């Protein structure tokens, strides 16, 4: 499979008052041209930090990429200046809180148009016309009348559309969407996901979707990468992982999702809480919350095991995948 983005053994650390925290610990995944890859996991699992590393915006001086590689179209994004030169033009990002991402004192049309003025040397009139077309494209009603509105005058869903318009301004080949439907109601969530899917289809761009919501990505993603405590615990084609989950964390997440056509089904939450990254348990990080844990799990961190014959197939980092698969059915 052709690869547009390749992340290999990525490690990101943060210096805190309590010590050094490894937020991403050896994460690896690929994104092909036109492909949608979802990064799934609870808060603090390393999803957003992975995206920041790809974009070259890990907060400094506290944070730093301390290992691994990130390659985009055969270009090393960890070489100083490379990621900055590609941001906006080749790689763009939609952040989870559009209100804090947009400048409250500038009109949205000017903020979208600034992309064309800065990167393409467009005149003020040309930038305004381009901003209007983008606002129409992302489905903002009465776009010509809303060009001069401020961010606070838009609803949450409309602000997210403005952010998507800004991200798409320079026709990037890779879009990273970090929790794009957070704090939106279910109907608006569906509209935003449908919008992203339509725009991706029209432009042929690749999409990395970061979320904690399994339902959001079920009909959108081609492949999924599940992270726990900064480590990849399961990955593979979305259907294989969802239907044959082989890691107890994935199985627990699936069991905690409500099923609409079975209202009396009792939800089974994952016991316990995510570990403190300053004092991870020995062996498998999920061990304190796992029903399959034994001395092997306590003594040795599990490596990703190939569960499929295909190189890009299903993998899980568990010492007992057979037990998880058996109980899942």
Describe the structure.
With 329 residues, this protein is α/β, with parallel strands linked by helices. The chain has a domain at 252-329. Helices cover 33% and strands 22% of the residues. The chain has 13 helices and twelve strands. It has helices at 47-55, 82-86, 98-101, 108-120, 124-137, 143-146, 156-168, 186-203, 214-217, 238-243, 248-255, 295-299, 321-327; strands spanning 5-16, 19-31, 36-40, 63-72, 75-76, 91-94, 174-178, 206-211, 223-228, 231-237, 305-306, 315-316. The strands form two sheets. Strands 6-7-8-3-9-10-12-11 form an eight-stranded mixed sheet, with helices on both faces. Helix 8 (186-203) links the parallel strand 7 (174-178) and strand 8. It is globular, with a radius of gyration of 21 Å.
- Enumerate the strands of the largest sheet in spatial order, edge to edge or round the barrel: 6-7-8-3-9-10-12-11
Q: Can you give the helix content as a percent range?
A: 25-40%
Which segments are poorly predicted (pLDDT under 50) over 5 or more consecutive residues?
none
Which descriptor suits the 3D outline?
globular
Mean pLDDT, rounded to whole units? Answer: 92
What proportion of the residues form beta strands (DSSP E)? 15-25%
The largest β sheet comes out as: 8 strands, mixed
Q: What's the order of the H and E elements? A: EEEHEEHEHHHHHEHEHEEHHHEEH
Quote the distance from N terminus to C terminus.
Answer: 31 Å
Q: Total helix count?
A: 13
- For the secondary structure, the number of strands is 12
Whole-angstrom Rg: 21 Å
Q: Helices and strands: which structural class?
A: alpha/beta
